[in-house]
Design brief:
Blueprint (H helix, E strand, L loop, with lengths): L34 E3 L2 E3 L2 H14 L20
Antiparallel strand pairs: 1-2
């Protein structure tokens, strides 16, 4: 049986969720991603900072924390 491609990717660099190097909450894939925003998942602190700088320059920083993407799966397109 072929493995299904992962639907979630880092919105900054494109690294797939579950790939080596993706950061998870408490280091456990079962706990979900360590970083996310209202636009999608981020794989690392570096991508999180890059995304924040990009949004600050655009003037589109969110005004409140984004909901957990795995509790509200309809927020992100697959």
């Amino acid at each position: 049986m072929l493995a299904r491609p992962d639907a979630y990717r880092c919105i900054e660099c494109g690294l797939p969720y579950r790939a080596p190097g993706f950061s998870y909450y408490h280091g456990m894939v079962e706990e979900g991603p360590a970083y996310w925003t209202d636009r999608g998942l981020l794989c690392s602190a570096q991508c999180s900072l890059a995304h924040h700088k990009k949004r600050r320059a655009e003037g589109t920083l969110p005004q409140e924390p984004a909901p957990d993407p795995f509790e509200v799966p309809s927020l992100f397109r697959r």
